[in-house]
């Protein structure tokens, strides 16, 4: 690990000031990814700005038909929240299946979305539920937030403050996880709303994406059988030591069917 300066501000205003003065500084949330890259000397930063001391970035609240979750809220807190369990049970269950106990007690919602790992779970929930990512500068629809492999629409100096998840009529999530990391080799979030059905896929490609063919099939018949032949093509999907592209394509259909079953039970 290379040497760096460390700051722990207490307000978002202080964070903005530090970032203006230190253009190459990095903010750190749960540190589940950044700390590992620093330890292995895969990256070098002049300053780390720790967000843990900013109270306004944490917490869960219900605002009408929206579940608003602070960026610094831990996965374990989302999983254990009675409000989330009642409003969007699929989101609580998704959070409960992230990583192991240590990861769930350190990792944060905002950190996961900002990092946009191709195998992360939260991007599927955000895109599937058509969430709005609120930053210190603007509001970004989930459909425009995830732009590529480890890439998002966040600009320099922009920090996620909250994520607003609309309550669905019903939703379900299923993933085929890596047995070591518990990242999703393939994960599918299915959401039925008043404006239509949404199906978001994580793990299969370089970035989370929607399965439009499945959405059309489920809009007509919200059953696992309806998407038996509405799978995604293997072309462009990830292929690595964990799973080949054609196997991931197969898993998308299987996980989507399981997600539909889970949604139907709620």
Question: What report would you give on this structure?
Answer:
- The chain is built from 11 helices and 14 strands.
- It has 266 residues and is an alpha+beta fold.
- It is globular.
- Strand 13 and strand 14 form a beta hairpin.
- The strands form 4 sheets. The chain has a 5-stranded antiparallel β-sheet with strand order 4-5-10-6-7. Strands 11-12-13-14 form a 4-stranded antiparallel β-sheet, with helices on both faces.
- Among the domains are: 56 residues, 2-Layer Sandwich (Uridine Diphospho-n-acetylenolpyruvylglucosamine Reductase, domain 2), CATH 3.30.43.10; 96 residues, CO dehydrogenase flavoprotein, C-terminal domain (Enolase-like, domain 1, 2-Layer Sandwich).
Write the layout of secondary structure elements.
Layout: E1 5-7, H1 12-21, E2 26-28, H2 34-39, E3 47-50, E4 60-63, E5 66-70, H3 75-80, H4 82-87, H5 89-96, H6 101-106, H7 109-115, H8 122-128, E6 132-135, E7 139-141, H9 142-145, E8 146-148, E9 151-152, E10 160-166, E11 170-177, E12 184-193, E13 196-202, E14 209-210, H10 212-220, H11 245-265
Parallel strand pairs: 1-3, 2-3
Antiparallel strand pairs: 4-5, 5-10, 6-7, 6-10, 8-9, 11-12, 12-13, 13-14
């Amino acid at each position: 690990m290379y040497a760096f300066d460390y700051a722990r501000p207490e307000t978002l205003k202080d964070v903005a000031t530090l970032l203006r003065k230190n253009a190459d500084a990095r903010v750190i949330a749960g540190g589940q990814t950044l700390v590992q890259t620093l330890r292995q000397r895969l990256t070098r930063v002049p300053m780390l700005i720790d967000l843990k001391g900013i109270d306004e970035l944490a917490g869960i609240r219900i605002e009408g038909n929206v579940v608003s979750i602070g960026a610094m809220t831990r996965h374990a807190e989302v999983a254990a929240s009675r409000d989330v369990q009642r409003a969007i049970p699929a989101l609580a269950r998704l959070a409960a299946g992230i990583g192991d106990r240590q990861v769930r007690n350190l990792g944060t919602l905002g950190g996961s979305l900002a990092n946009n790992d191709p195998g992360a779970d939260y991007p599927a929930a955000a895109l599937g539920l058509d969430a709005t990512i609120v930053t210190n500068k603007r509001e970004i629809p989930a459909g425009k937030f995830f732009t590529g492999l480890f890439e998002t629409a966040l600009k320099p100096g922009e920090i996620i403050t909250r994520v607003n998840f609309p309550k669905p009529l019903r939703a379900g999530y299923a993933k085929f996880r890596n047995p070591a990391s518990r990242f999703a080799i393939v994960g599918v979030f299915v959401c039925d709303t008043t404006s239509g059905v949404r199906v978001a896929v994580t793990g299969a490609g370089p970035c989370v994406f929607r399965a439009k063919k499945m959405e059309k099939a489920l809009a007509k018949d919200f059953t696992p059988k309806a998407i038996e032949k509405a799978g995604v093509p293997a072309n462009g999907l990830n292929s690595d030591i964990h799973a080949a592209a054609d196997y991931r394509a197969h898993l998308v259909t299987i996980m989507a069917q399981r997600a539909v079953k889970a949604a139907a039970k709620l």
